[in-house]
Structures are given as structure tokens and as C-alpha cells.
Amino acid sequence: MAEYLLEMRGIVKDFSGVKALNGIDLAVRAGECVGLCGENGAGKSTLMKVLSAVYPHGSWTGQILWNGQELKARGIRETEEAGIVIIHQELMLVPHLSVTENIFLGNEITGFAGTLDYAAMHQRAAELMRDLKMPEVNVALPVSQYGGGHQQLIEIAKALNKKARLLILDEPTSSLTKAETAILLDIILDLKKKGVACVMISHKLDEIAAVCDTISVIRDGTHVGTRPMGELSVDQIITMMVGREITNLFPREEHPIGEVIFEARNVTCFDIDNPARKKVDDVSFQLRRGEVLGVAGLVGAGRTELAMAIFGCYPGKSSATVLLDGKPVHIDSPQTAVKSGLCLVPEDRKRHGIVPLMGVGHNITLSVPEQFSRFGVIDQAAEMQTIEKMIRRMRIKTATPMLAIQGLSGGNQQKAVFAKMLLPAPRVLILDEPTRGVDVGAKYEIYKLMMELVKEGMSIIMISSELPELLGMSDRVLVIGEGRLRGDFINNGLSQETVMAAAIGQTET
């Protein structure tokens, strides 16, 4: 019997002559969890797409050994039949189908004359839910009835139903709460005990440290090293990933903070599904020139809705009075917000930040088409000059500015969205979860950029679920709880405990 369940040897994959993978090796034993680490664009997801035959045999060079035998899979069905199942960062569930139907999609149990045996499928689905510590899930209901945490675990149930021997988890906790993340990590530990192997891609290195036995790091498509987790600290993993030591993850610097330039008064948003309920309830705040204003709160507190209402894009009923330099500004759409000097980097870049099939460059200039228009004709040379300048400034890794932006890694897509929102030269920049799904190196670059912008006099509102990030970068922190403003703290020795106490509506003792 082979020592390794999986071996990938010398994997090379290129796109239009650009090597995304250049001789990568990876080995995984049964019951082992390997953490695959690297910056955005390092090649992690590409390597996993090679393994799961999203990129079929023949479109890359090298060798894959599965249980000691060479694997030459031509498609995902072949790798799944072998026992290799990938769970992508974007969940592959059909919202209007039931939990059972999603779990058995393409793998249905049939009875007499080929009819679907729903009783058997419901029973098996319920068993899987119990195994995953979710006995309360009604498997007959549509998956749209359940939140992101439940849906992530339903994806795992779907994989286990395919008798997965190797589970590939690509950023599995990126949209989960802390409690949901804890459940998922426990499940990974249970799967290891049952002999299921895992490859976990995550930028949350504390989670990698909690469940992984081995760490394999790749940088710019090359294999940096593989070491036991027990021999590494989180700081050492970061150094391997970025090729340099980052001693201070939050490069906050002293910068002048001026007069109040922006004010939001009486911001109120009504729940789209239940108009009698307020998602944001009469929130008012001020923002000063050159200030980083952090916005904290639990998931569902109303932070994103607050930002959307100010930016003129809340999809339901809302009201707000917005003042810039003490003068009221009428904002009823993102277009009027941008023209007024207010820009937003949205929480969900896939849905609200990019046009997936459009080129990287045209995504960047989408916010200011008038800058390149002369008598109705686009000055392509001027536009390309601006595109190349922003790609250099943001260090966006792309083979060409014309590459469809969906071909970029998540971190590089995020940098492109930043570039798009900086082109209008806003006076107030709203960042909603700006580093979600972004590696530590790219996070550091985003933080450095924030410091450059506030030194130039721009004001930033940063919404984040990561308290260390908020406390590491903000001058002042607003706390939102159940749609209401529960705290406004100067960040001078401010603790996570104080912020959390305000978020849950309790006075810290």
C-alpha cells in the first residue's frame, strides 16, 4: 500500500505562456490535513483545479498519483468517482432545490422504473446532517432557507455522500461566523479520525494551525517548502508565504486628522422581507478629514446596510441625510454618490464589485468612462495609460490588462475594485470588509495604501468583522448592534472586550 494517498509531482500549468504553476509537488496521507498556503495569485486554486480535473489531464504537465496509481482524469466526474471532491469558495448549491436534492444532485437514488427514491434520499440526507451536528436541518426545505454556515456544511454533506476520501476545502470559512467556523473545524478534525484526507486553503492562519498536520507553501507558482505544523509558528508561515518578514501586520502611522467633512444623519433602512422591521435604526455619525473610522458589530447588525444607504444603493426602503463640508448632498444612486465624492468598495466583490467577463482594465475604468471620452469617442491610448498606472500602483497580478477579471485570484480582483474606486478621487472612501478572502501580504499592501490615502487627506470608513484589523487601523470605532449605534470610541488603548460588550448591548464590567 502506498505511503501517500495523493502525490502531485512537478505540476506545470501555464496560461498564454505565463506559468501559473512551475513544478509544484504536494503529498497527502490518509487522515492527514495539509494546509496549502500562499498569497493571492500564488497558484493555490489553480493547483487544486488541476487535481480535481477542472483542468483535465493533458492541459498541464507533471504527474498525479492516487493511491500509488497514476491518475489521468479528463473531468470532475472521474476525480469524484476516485474519491477526490473539491468544495469551492463560491458554493455550488441550487437555492430553490431542497437540501436532499442538492446533496444527491447528479448522484440520485433511483427505484422501480428509474423513479427517484425520495424516501431513501431523505433518510440518507438526514443521517449526514446528524453526522455533521446539524440534526435540526429539515432536509426537505430549500437550501435558500438556511444561512451561509449551514450551506457550507451542506456542501460538505454533498461531498461525503460521494464517498470522498480526499476533501479539498477552498477558503471554507470566508463567509462564516466565529461559531459556524468552530463547528466546521471540529468536523474537519472528526473527518481526519475517520481516515478522510483534507487539503485546506485558507488565509486565516490560526484556523490552519488548529486543524492542519502539515503546511505546504507556494509562492508565485513555485513550491517554497513543506513542513510539519508543529515546527512552525504563524509568523514563520507568513515569512514563507511573502518572502519577507512582516513584523507589524497593521502599519498604522501617525497622520493629521482635520475638521469634520462628512456627516450622516438619521440613517434608517427597512428590512426588504419584513418592512415593519428596521435593519438600521436612526444612526448618525461624523467623519473627519484624514480619519479612519472603523465600524464594528456582529453579523447582521446592519453595518453593510448602513454603508449601502449612504452610498445610495440599499435595495429596500431607506432614508438618510448626508452632508459634505456641512452642506446637504442628495444621493439617490451610486452614480450621484461618486459624483459627490463618495465611493464604496463593496463587501461582495463577485456580485457588486466586478463585471466577471470584462477585462481587468475596463473593470478599473468603469467608474470614470467620461474621463476618456472625447466627443463620444473613447481615447483608448489615454485609457490604457491610466489602466497600466493603476495596475502598477495596486500591484495587480494579471497576464494582460485585457484578461477577463474572473480569471484573477480573489485578492487581485479586490485590488482592481480598489483601483476602480480610487480613480474618481473620492473624498470619502467606504471599505466594506476590504480584506475578506485576501492573504496576509495583500492585506498589508491594502493597509499601507489606506495610510497613504489618509495622509493625503482622504477620509475612510472601514467596516470589518475582524476586530484586530479594526483596532490595528482605525482612529475611532463605531459599534453597531441590532441596527443601532451602541458605541463611538476613540481608539486609544481600546480593547476587543470593550467593543464586543458594546456590540452585544452589555456594559463591560
Walk me through the structure:
Pfam families: ABC_tran (PF00005). This is Xylose ABC transporter ATP-binding protein. The protein has 509 residues and is an alpha/beta fold. The chain has two domains: 6-242, 3-Layer(aba) Sandwich (Rossmann fold), CATH 3.40.50.300; 260-341 and 426-503, P-loop containing nucleotide triphosphate hydrolases (Rossmann fold), CATH 3.40.50. It is 32% helix and 25% strand. It has 17 helices and 22 strands. The chain has helices at residues 44-51, 76-82, 99-103, 118-131, 148-161, 178-193, 205-211, 234-242, 303-311, 334-340, 349-353, 360-364, 380-394, 410-422, 440-455, 467-473, 496-503, and strands spanning 6-15, 18-28, 33-37, 61-66, 69-70, 84-87, 166-170, 197-201, 214-219, 222-228, 260-270, 278-288, 292-296, 318-324, 327-329, 342-345, 373-374, 377-378, 428-432, 459-463, 476-481, 484-490. The strands form five sheets. Strands 6-7-8-3-9-10 form a six-stranded mixed β-sheet, sandwiched between helices. Strand 17 (373-374) and strand 18 form a beta hairpin. The longest helix is centred in the middle third of the chain and has 16 residues, at 178-193. The model has no long low-confidence stretch (mean pLDDT 89).
